[in-house]
Amino acid sequence: MKIAILTLFPLAFENVFSESIIKKAQDKKLLKITLVDIRNFAHDKHQKVDDKPYGGGKGMLLKVDVLVEAIESIKEKPYIILLSPSGKTFNQKKALGLSQKKSLAIICGHYEGIDSRIEEFVDEVISIGDFVLTGGEIAAMIIVDSVARLIPGVIHPESLETESFSPKYAKEKSGGFRLEHPQYTRPENFRGHKVPKILLSGNHQKIDQWQKKESVKKTRKTRPELLKN
Ligand code: ADE
Q1: DSSP single-letter state for residue 10
Q2: Average pLDDT over residues 88-92
Q3: Quaternary structure (predicted)?
Q4: CA–CA distance, 218 with 197 (Å, rounded to integer)
Q5: What is the whole-number distance in angstroms between the Cα of residue 129 and the centre of ligand 1?
Q6: Under CATH, domain 2-148 is a member of which superfamily?
Q7: Residue 130 labeled ligand binder
C-alpha cells in the first residue's frame, strides 16, 4: 500500500515512521509512505500557502489552489482523505476499509482551517475524535498506524483476531463489539495481586468462557454504550 501525507511539517513524521511495526512494514515493502511538503506548491517566492478568509474572521486559511496542486502531484490515483475536527469520526471499521485501498493521500490541515472548496477534491473528511488539535499531523500518524497494522502480512493475523473492536472477535466471543479481556504474564503473584486461577488450569474451554465473560464485564464497566448496539 502507498500512503502520501500532505503536510506543512514533514519532519514531524520522521521518528514515528522509523520505529517498530511501521518501520517493519516499510522494510518488508508492504507499505510505502511519502511525505509531500505543501509549501513546495506555493506560487510565490515567499512560499505563501495561506491567506485571509473572505468575509472577514480571525486567522488564516490554507489555499485551495496550492493544496489541489499538491494532490495532483501524486502519480497513482489515491483515495483522498482530508483531516478535520468536523469530519466523520474514525474507528476500527474505517481503519479496516482504508487498509484495503492501494493508495491513500492524507491531507493535514493547519492554521484556522482550509478553504472549504477543498472538500470538492477529496473522497472523505475524517476526524479522529471530538476535540481540536493544532493541526492534522498527529491525526495522520494515528490513522497511518492503525491502518498499517491491518495490511495483510504486517502483523500475525491471530493477534488481530482477539483484540478490542475486531469484527471476528466480536462475532465469536461476544456477539457484538467488545473490549478485549484482561491478560497476564509472570510473576503469578505481584505484591499480592494474583493471576486469576482459571488461567493456570490448562482447561482451554473454561478459559475461553472466562475470557468471554471478562470481556463483557470490562465493556459494561468502561464502555457500556457498546453493549447497547
Ligand atoms: N485537526 C484538528 N483537530 C482534528 C481532529 N480531531 N481530527 C482530525 N484532524 C484534526
Answers
A1: G
A2: 97
A3: Homodimer.
A4: 18
A5: 7
A6: SPOUT methyltransferase, trefoil knot domain (3.40.1280.10)
A7: yes
Under 8 Å CB-to-CB from 203, ≥6 apart: which residues?
none
* Under 8 Å between Cβ of 97 and 116: no
- Indicate the pTM of the whole model: 0.92
| pLDDT surpassing 80 at residue 6 | yes
Angle at 120 between CA 70 and CA 83, to 5 degrees: 65
Report residue 69 as a C-alpha cell. Answer: 496542486
Residue ID of nearest Cα to ligand 1 atom 5: 85
pLDDT at position 174 over 70: no
Q: 42: CA distance to ligand 1 center in Å?
A: 23
Q: Per the annotation, does 121 bind a ligand?
A: no
Q: Mean pLDDT over residues 118-142, rounded?
A: 97
Q: 475461553: which residue's cell? A: 208
CB 30 within 8 Å of CB 154: yes
List the domain boundaries for the chain. Answer: 2-148, 157-226
Any idea which architecture 157-226 has in CATH? Orthogonal Bundle (1.10)
Check the annotation: does 199 bind a ligand. Answer: no
212, amino acid identity: K
Q: What is the 8-class DSSP label of residue 196?
A: P
Question: Pocket of ligand 1, candidates 61, 89, 132: which has the most ligand atoms within 8 Å of its Cβ, to mutate?
Answer: 132
Tell whether 56 is in a known binding site.
no
| DSSP alpha helix (H) spans, the chain | 14-17, 20-27, 64-72, 92-99, 137-148, 157-161, 167-169, 204-222, 224-228
Gap from CA of 36 to ligand 1 centroid (Å)? 19
